[in-house]
């Protein structure tokens, strides 16, 4: 593997699966930290605040600062502020997206929103989905923090945020705007804030359709690990290939 300055990791399926760490990934991150190489955590999960993600990583044996954590919640809040100004927003989501909106001084409302934002919500209800559908039919823009249809756990796959956004979009016959991977926005934020060249960055993940395509669209090298959503056999059939394909991160030498 060639030398890189910035190593950008997906979380679920790459560093851990559900409540279980992936030892080879944790060991690889420790090696990078010992060599004082820069490590970032790039996640489509909008449910947690940066401090909560930091604590999750700590429980898996990974030390991180909040400045190293980039989530779809952060990107979504900045996008709404830049494109909709002082718009009122109806939110389906958990702590992460609400915390991000509060930081951007965006008004979160229950009635007559200008924008509907959907992030993963493990307490989602028919009533919440109905409110979102009615708001979009009345002219509100529809934004999803990410389009992941599913995510891996130790039990098997659980439904992801994208599955619920697609439900609302199909009911309302509109096309949603998605913020998270495979959009390259988070990687570009890292590049701009730290001054890396794209060839100095490496995106590492288990999901070809989000992590790997994010890196490819951004223009940096990528590593697909066979520890999560998309199996190696499926990846090898894709037209656009990752730079590296490994069973797990013990297969990479720094």
UniProtKB/TrEMBL annotation:
One GO term in the molecular function aspect is: hydrolase activity
A Pfam family per the record:
Hydrolase_6
Q: Which UniProt keywords apply?
A: Hydrolase, Magnesium, Metal-binding
Gene3D superfamilies in alphabetical order: HAD superfamily/HAD-like
Concerning SUPFAM superfamilies, the annotation shows: HAD-like
Entry-linked InterPro entries = HAD-like_sf (IPR036412), HAD-SF_hydro_IIA (IPR006357), HAD-SF_hydro_IIA_hyp1 (IPR006354), HAD_sf (IPR023214)
**Metal-binding: present as a keyword of the record?**
yes
Which coenzyme or cofactor does it need? Mg(2+)
For this protein, the record's PANTHER family field holds: 4-NITROPHENYLPHOSPHATASE-RELATED, HALOACID DEHALOGENASE-LIKE HYDROLASE DOMAIN-CONTAINING PROTEIN 2
Family to which the UniProt record says this protein belongs:
Belongs to the HAD-like hydrolase superfamily. NagD family.
Query: What is this protein identified as?
Result: TIGR01457 family HAD-type hydrolase
Tell me which species this is from.
Answer: Ureibacillus suwonensis
């Amino acid at each position: 593997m060639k030398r890189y300055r910035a190593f950008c990791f997906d979380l679920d399926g790459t560093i851990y699966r559900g409540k279980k760490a992936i030892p080879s990934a944790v060991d690889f991150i420790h090696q990078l930290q010992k060599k004082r190489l820069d490590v970032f955590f790039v996640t489509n999960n909008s449910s947690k605040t940066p401090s909560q993600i930091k604590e999750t990583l700590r429980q898996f044996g990974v030390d991180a600062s909040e400045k190293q954590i980039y989530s779809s919640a952060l990107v979504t809040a900045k996008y709404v502020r830049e494109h909709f100004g002082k718009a009122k927003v109806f939110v389906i989501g958990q702590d992460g997206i609400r915390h991000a909106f509060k930081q951007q001084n965006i008004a979160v409302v229950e009635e007559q929103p200008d924008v509907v934002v959907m992030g993963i919500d493990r307490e989602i209800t028919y009533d919440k989905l109905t409110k979102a559908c009615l708001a979009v039919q009345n002219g509100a823009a529809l934004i999803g923090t990410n389009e992941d249809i599913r995510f891996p756990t130790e039990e098997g796959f659980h439904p992801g945020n994208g599955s619920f956004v697609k439900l609302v979009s199909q009911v309302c016959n509109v096309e949603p705007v998605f913020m998270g991977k495979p959009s390259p926005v988070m990687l570009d934020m890292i590049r701009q804030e730290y001054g890396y060249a794209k060839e100095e960055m490496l995106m590492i993940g288990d999901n070809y359709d989000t992590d790997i395509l994010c890196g490819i669209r951004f223009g940096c090298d990528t590593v697909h690990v066979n520890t999560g959503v998309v199996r190696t056999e499926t990846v090898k059939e894709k037209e656009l290939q990752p730079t590296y394909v490994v069973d797990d991160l013990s297969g990479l030498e720094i």
